[in-house]
Protein backbone atom coordinates (compact mmCIF):
# COMPACT_ATOMS: atom_id res chain seq x y z
CA UNK A 1 0.00 0.00 0.00
CA UNK A 2 1.37 3.42 -0.93
CA UNK A 3 2.55 5.57 1.95
CA UNK A 4 2.39 9.35 1.52
CA UNK A 5 3.77 11.86 3.98
CA UNK A 6 3.66 15.63 3.92
CA UNK A 7 6.59 18.00 4.29
CA UNK A 8 7.23 21.73 3.96
CA UNK A 9 7.37 22.95 0.38
CA UNK A 10 10.25 25.05 1.66
CA UNK A 11 11.54 24.27 5.12
CA UNK A 12 12.46 27.29 7.28
CA UNK A 13 15.74 25.53 8.13
CA UNK A 14 16.73 25.41 4.46
CA UNK A 15 17.31 21.64 4.51
CA UNK A 16 19.18 21.18 7.80
CA UNK A 17 16.87 18.24 8.46
CA UNK A 18 15.28 19.76 11.56
CA UNK A 19 11.72 19.80 10.22
CA UNK A 20 9.83 16.88 11.66
CA UNK A 21 9.26 15.07 8.37
CA UNK A 22 12.92 13.97 8.67
CA UNK A 23 12.21 11.69 11.64
CA UNK A 24 9.33 10.07 9.75
CA UNK A 25 11.48 9.65 6.63
CA UNK A 26 14.18 8.11 8.87
CA UNK A 27 11.74 5.62 10.39
CA UNK A 28 10.46 4.65 6.95
CA UNK A 29 14.03 4.16 5.74
CA UNK A 30 14.93 2.04 8.79
CA UNK A 31 11.88 -0.13 8.05
CA UNK A 32 12.76 -0.31 4.34
CA UNK A 33 9.44 1.17 3.23
CA UNK A 34 9.09 3.22 0.04
CA UNK A 35 7.04 6.39 0.35
CA UNK A 36 5.84 9.45 -1.51
CA UNK A 37 6.04 13.01 -0.25
CA UNK A 38 3.44 15.69 -0.84
CA UNK A 39 4.98 19.11 -0.33
CA UNK A 40 2.73 21.76 1.18
CA UNK A 41 3.10 25.52 1.45
CA UNK A 42 2.50 27.37 4.74
CA UNK A 43 -0.75 28.66 3.26
CA UNK A 44 -1.95 25.23 2.13
CA UNK A 45 -1.25 23.80 5.63
CA UNK A 46 -3.92 26.10 7.05
CA UNK A 47 -6.56 25.29 4.41
CA UNK A 48 -9.44 22.81 4.84
CA UNK A 49 -7.93 20.01 2.73
CA UNK A 50 -4.84 19.83 4.95
CA UNK A 51 -6.73 20.58 8.17
CA UNK A 52 -8.79 17.45 7.55
CA UNK A 53 -5.54 15.51 7.81
CA UNK A 54 -3.92 17.62 10.54
CA UNK A 55 -6.22 19.60 12.85
CA UNK A 56 -3.36 21.90 13.88
CA UNK A 57 -2.35 22.75 10.32
CA UNK A 58 1.16 21.31 10.55
CA UNK A 59 3.45 18.78 8.92
CA UNK A 60 4.16 15.92 8.81
CA UNK A 61 1.12 13.78 8.12
CA UNK A 62 1.08 10.12 7.12
CA UNK A 63 -1.41 8.38 4.83
CA UNK A 64 -1.55 4.68 4.11
CA UNK A 65 -4.76 3.44 2.47
CA UNK A 66 -7.64 4.52 4.71
CA UNK A 67 -5.33 5.37 7.60
CA UNK A 68 -4.38 9.01 8.13
CA UNK A 69 -2.14 10.01 11.03
CA UNK A 70 -0.56 13.17 12.40
CA UNK A 71 1.92 13.59 15.31
CA UNK A 72 5.38 12.18 14.72
CA UNK A 73 5.19 10.08 17.89
CA UNK A 74 2.09 8.29 16.60
CA UNK A 75 3.50 7.97 13.10
CA UNK A 76 6.87 6.54 14.15
CA UNK A 77 5.11 4.24 16.64
CA UNK A 78 2.84 2.97 13.85
CA UNK A 79 5.78 2.26 11.55
CA UNK A 80 7.73 0.54 14.33
CA UNK A 81 4.68 -1.45 15.41
CA UNK A 82 3.95 -2.87 11.97
CA UNK A 83 7.43 -3.41 10.57
CA UNK A 84 10.69 -4.94 11.75
CA UNK A 85 13.73 -2.85 12.58
CA UNK A 86 12.60 -0.25 15.12
CA UNK A 87 11.22 -2.16 18.11
CA UNK A 88 12.97 -5.02 19.91
CA UNK A 89 11.14 -8.34 19.91
CA UNK A 90 11.35 -8.77 23.68
CA UNK A 91 8.14 -7.30 25.18
CA UNK A 92 9.82 -5.49 28.08
CA UNK A 93 12.53 -4.02 25.85
CA UNK A 94 9.80 -2.87 23.48
CA UNK A 95 7.96 -1.15 26.34
CA UNK A 96 11.19 0.65 27.24
CA UNK A 97 11.69 1.73 23.60
CA UNK A 98 8.19 3.26 23.72
CA UNK A 99 9.10 4.91 27.03
CA UNK A 100 12.12 6.56 25.40
CA UNK A 101 9.97 7.79 22.51
CA UNK A 102 7.69 9.47 25.03
CA UNK A 103 10.66 10.79 26.98
CA UNK A 104 12.10 12.37 23.84
CA UNK A 105 8.83 14.04 22.88
CA UNK A 106 7.53 14.87 26.31
CA UNK A 107 10.55 15.47 28.54
CA UNK A 108 13.29 16.66 26.19
CA UNK A 109 11.75 18.28 23.11
CA UNK A 110 9.61 20.88 24.96
CA UNK A 111 12.55 22.70 26.59
CA UNK A 112 14.50 22.72 23.31
CA UNK A 113 11.45 24.06 21.51
CA UNK A 114 11.12 26.76 24.14
CA UNK A 115 14.57 28.04 23.15
CA UNK A 116 13.69 28.02 19.45
CA UNK A 117 10.56 30.05 20.22
CA UNK A 118 12.41 32.42 22.57
CA UNK A 119 15.09 33.13 19.99
CA UNK A 120 13.23 33.18 16.70
CA UNK A 121 9.63 34.08 17.48
CA UNK A 122 10.07 36.23 20.56
CA UNK A 123 13.66 37.40 20.07
CA UNK A 124 12.62 41.05 19.79
CA UNK A 125 10.63 41.15 23.03
CA UNK A 126 12.10 43.33 25.78
CA UNK A 127 12.13 40.45 28.27
CA UNK A 128 13.98 38.01 26.01
CA UNK A 129 17.52 38.77 27.29
CA UNK A 130 16.31 38.04 30.81
CA UNK A 131 14.41 34.92 29.81
CA UNK A 132 17.03 33.24 27.59
CA UNK A 133 19.40 32.17 30.39
CA UNK A 134 16.50 30.52 32.24
CA UNK A 135 15.42 28.64 29.14
CA UNK A 136 18.99 27.52 28.46
CA UNK A 137 19.44 26.38 32.05
CA UNK A 138 16.38 24.12 31.75
CA UNK A 139 17.88 22.54 28.63
CA UNK A 140 21.26 22.09 30.33
CA UNK A 141 19.61 20.36 33.26
CA UNK A 142 17.67 17.95 31.04
CA UNK A 143 20.61 17.18 28.75
CA UNK A 144 22.82 16.61 31.79
CA UNK A 145 20.33 14.10 33.18
CA UNK A 146 20.10 12.35 29.84
CA UNK A 147 23.90 12.21 29.49
CA UNK A 148 24.12 10.67 32.96
CA UNK A 149 21.64 7.95 32.01
CA UNK A 150 23.29 7.25 28.64
CA UNK A 151 26.71 6.96 30.28
CA UNK A 152 29.10 5.37 27.80
CA UNK A 153 26.41 3.19 26.19
CA UNK A 154 25.96 3.27 22.43
CA UNK A 155 22.15 3.54 22.55
CA UNK A 156 19.63 4.23 25.30
CA UNK A 157 18.59 0.64 25.96
CA UNK A 158 20.61 -2.07 24.24
CA UNK A 159 20.30 -1.98 20.46
CA UNK A 160 19.13 0.97 18.36
CA UNK A 161 15.35 1.45 18.53
CA UNK A 162 12.58 3.91 17.74
CA UNK A 163 13.39 5.43 21.14
CA UNK A 164 16.85 6.39 19.89
CA UNK A 165 15.46 7.56 16.56
CA UNK A 166 13.17 9.97 18.37
CA UNK A 167 15.76 11.08 20.94
CA UNK A 168 18.44 11.76 18.30
CA UNK A 169 15.89 13.66 16.19
CA UNK A 170 14.94 15.82 19.16
CA UNK A 171 18.56 16.44 20.24
CA UNK A 172 19.46 17.56 16.73
CA UNK A 173 17.19 20.54 17.30
CA UNK A 174 19.49 21.68 20.14
CA UNK A 175 22.62 21.63 17.97
CA UNK A 176 22.26 25.02 16.24
CA UNK A 177 22.31 26.70 19.67
CA UNK A 178 25.68 25.09 20.48
CA UNK A 179 24.19 23.48 23.57
CA UNK A 180 24.44 19.89 22.33
CA UNK A 181 28.22 20.25 22.13
CA UNK A 182 28.32 21.10 25.84
CA UNK A 183 27.57 17.37 26.32
CA UNK A 184 30.17 15.45 24.28
CA UNK A 185 28.62 12.03 24.99
CA UNK A 186 25.26 13.24 23.67
CA UNK A 187 26.91 14.85 20.65
CA UNK A 188 28.60 11.50 19.93
CA UNK A 189 25.27 9.68 20.41
CA UNK A 190 23.63 12.01 17.89
CA UNK A 191 26.55 11.48 15.49
CA UNK A 192 26.00 7.69 15.73
CA UNK A 193 22.37 8.22 14.79
CA UNK A 194 23.31 10.45 11.88
CA UNK A 195 25.83 7.85 10.65
CA UNK A 196 23.12 5.25 10.13
CA UNK A 197 22.53 4.66 6.41
CA UNK A 198 18.77 5.07 6.89
CA UNK A 199 19.29 8.52 8.43
CA UNK A 200 21.67 9.49 5.64
CA UNK A 201 19.07 8.61 3.02
CA UNK A 202 16.33 10.48 4.87
CA UNK A 203 18.57 13.52 5.29
CA UNK A 204 19.67 13.49 1.65
CA UNK A 205 16.08 13.27 0.43
CA UNK A 206 14.88 16.23 2.48
CA UNK A 207 17.99 18.23 1.55
CA UNK A 208 17.42 17.60 -2.13
CA UNK A 209 13.77 18.57 -1.79
CA UNK A 210 14.73 21.84 -0.13
CA UNK A 211 17.80 22.86 -2.09
CA UNK A 212 17.89 20.71 -5.22
CA UNK A 213 21.29 19.45 -4.04
CA UNK A 214 22.05 15.87 -3.04
CA UNK A 215 24.95 15.37 -0.65
CA UNK A 216 27.85 13.34 -2.06
CA UNK A 217 28.19 9.75 -0.95
N1 LIG B 1 3.93 17.57 17.86
C1 LIG B 1 3.92 17.66 16.43
C2 LIG B 1 4.58 18.96 16.02
C3 LIG B 1 4.39 19.25 14.54
C4 LIG B 1 5.06 20.56 14.16
O1 LIG B 1 5.33 21.44 15.00
N2 LIG B 1 5.36 20.72 12.86
C5 LIG B 1 6.01 21.93 12.40
C6 LIG B 1 7.11 21.58 11.43
S1 LIG B 1 8.44 20.70 12.18
C7 LIG B 1 5.02 22.78 11.62
O2 LIG B 1 4.25 22.27 10.83
N3 LIG B 1 5.10 24.10 11.81
C8 LIG B 1 4.30 25.04 11.09
C9 LIG B 1 3.18 25.58 11.90
O3 LIG B 1 2.97 25.18 13.05
O4 LIG B 1 2.47 26.44 11.34
C10 LIG B 1 4.61 16.44 15.82
O5 LIG B 1 5.52 15.90 16.47
O6 LIG B 1 4.24 16.01 14.72
TrEMBL record:
Pfam families: GST_N. GO terms for molecular function: transferase activity. Residues 90-213 form the GST C-terminal domain. Residues 8-87 form the GST N-terminal domain. Keywords: Transferase. It comes from the Bacteria. It comes from Dyella thiooxydans. Transmembrane segments: none annotated. InterPro entries: Glutathione-S-Trfase_C-like (IPR010987), Glutathione-S-Trfase_C_sf (IPR036282), Glutathione_S-Trfase (IPR040079), Glutathione_S-Trfase_N (IPR004045), Thioredoxin-like_sf (IPR036249). This is Glutathione S-transferase.
